[in-house]
């Protein structure tokens, strides 16, 4: 399910709207994930505080969303552009790729909560495809 | 037997008591047909589903969205007996409608997104967890009679 020109334009447009709120979006999406899908907490046993307000959750949400924002400019070659991150996830972090879908879902929910007017069905499908393509690129080196 | 906390029960009752079933049903089904276009396979006789605008404006989509939401209401009113409540509907979806049960999750995700956009910050992580648990239980009940 490859990204069409229309999808790419929609993704760029909504990311433009998100602007400086990207950090907060990342924080909220990660916080939601840890509450709604408690099994994802298993990857963060080294943190002292997994509650939504924790500094660790905030910082990591910013990190993850920063990388996804970076991927918006790499849509023409996500596998190439995310190669280093794929190495990291494949050989060091070893996050089960099923979790990428879970985080993606929570990013979509966060966008719906914060940008209800902009998150139309057409924007929704474009962002869903984009996040799936990013997930696939991150999982590229897994085996 | 599904165990519901007081918070989960109260949350589900609260969300549905304030919900505009027609509007939410319409929007959730339309969104599902746009975001997951393969779901259109079940609606061959709905007429024009060629693009997002056509889907949103299609009166059959609106009407059917409302039917689905009113069907959900049965679970809202029988939270301790969802499996039995949906036994007949499960047979219907399996034997007559031939709906792949994976679609229940797709529609549930779209319903979550629509409710999230309506409630805004009121759709906290805990509320989201309760709502998604409810929809998962409904989906499992609808899947139960498939063989």
Automatic annotation (TrEMBL), chain A:
Q: Which domain of life is it from?
A: Eukaryota
Query: What Gene Ontology terms describe where this protein resides (cellular component)?
Result: blood microparticle; haptoglobin-hemoglobin complex; hemoglobin complex
Any idea which UniProt keywords this protein has? Answer: Heme, Iron, Metal-binding, Oxygen transport, Transport
Q: Where is the Globin domain?
A: 2-143
Q: Which is one GO molecular function term here?
A: haptoglobin binding
Q: Which GO terms describe its biological process?
A: hydrogen peroxide catabolic process
Is-annotated flag, keyword ATP-binding?
Answer: no
Q: Membrane: is it a keyword of this entry?
A: no
Q: Which family does it belong to?
A: Belongs to the globin family.
Q: What is this protein called?
A: Hemoglobin, alpha adult 2
Automatic annotation (TrEMBL), chain B:
Q: Which GO terms describe its biological process?
A: hydrogen peroxide catabolic process
Keywords, alphabetical: Heme, Iron, Metal-binding, Oxygen transport, Transport
UniProt entry tagged with the keyword Iron? yes
Q: A single Gene Ontology molecular function, please? A: haptoglobin binding
Globin domain spans which residues?
3-147
PROSITE patterns in UniProt: GLOBIN (PS01033)
Gene Ontology CC entries for this record: blood microparticle; haptoglobin-hemoglobin complex; hemoglobin complex
- Establish whether keyword Metal-binding is in the entry: yes
Give the PANTHER family listed for this entry. HEMOGLOBIN FAMILY MEMBER, HEMOGLOBIN SUBUNIT EPSILON
> Per the similarity annotation, which family is this?
Belongs to the globin family.
Query: What protein does this entry describe?
Result: Hemoglobin subunit epsilon 1
What is the organism field in this record?
A: Astyanax mexicanus (Blind cave fish)
């Amino acid at each position: 399910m490859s990204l069409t020109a229309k999808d790419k334009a929609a993704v760029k447009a909504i990311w433009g709207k998100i602007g400086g709120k990207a950090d907060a979006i990342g924080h909220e999406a990660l916080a939601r994930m840890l509450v709604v899908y408690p099994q994802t907490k298993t990857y963060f046993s080294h943190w002292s505080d997994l509650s939504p307000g924790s500094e660790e959750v905030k910082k990591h949400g910013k990190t993850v969303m920063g990388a996804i924002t970076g991927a918006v400019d790499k849509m023409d070659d996500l596998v190439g552009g995310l190669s280093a991150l794929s190495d990291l996830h494949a050989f060091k972090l070893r996050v089960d790729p099923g979790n990428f879908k879970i985080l993606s879902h929570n990013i979509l929910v966060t966008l719906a909560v914060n940008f209800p007017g902009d998150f139309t069905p057409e924007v929704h499908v474009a962002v869903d495809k984009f996040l799936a393509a990013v997930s696939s690129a991150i999982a590229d080196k897994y085996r | 037997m599904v165990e519901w906390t007081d918070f989960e029960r109260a949350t589900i009752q609260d969300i549905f008591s304030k919900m505009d079933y027609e509007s939410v049903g319409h929007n959730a089904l339309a969104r599902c047909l746009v975001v997951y276009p393969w779901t259109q396979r079940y609606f061959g006789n709905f007429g024009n589903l060629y693009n997002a605008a056509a889907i949103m404006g299609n009166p059959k989509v609106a009407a059917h969205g409302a039917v689905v939401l009113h069907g959900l209401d049965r679970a809202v009113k029988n939270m301790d007996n969802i499996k039995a409540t949906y036994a007949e509907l499960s047979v219907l979806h399996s034997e007559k409608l031939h709906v792949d049960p994976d679609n229940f999750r797709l529609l549930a995700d779209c319903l979550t997104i629509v409710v999230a956009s309506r409630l805004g910050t009121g759709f906290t992580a805990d509320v989201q967890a309760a709502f998604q648990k409810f929809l998962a239980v409904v989906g499992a009940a609808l899947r139960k009679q498939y063989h």
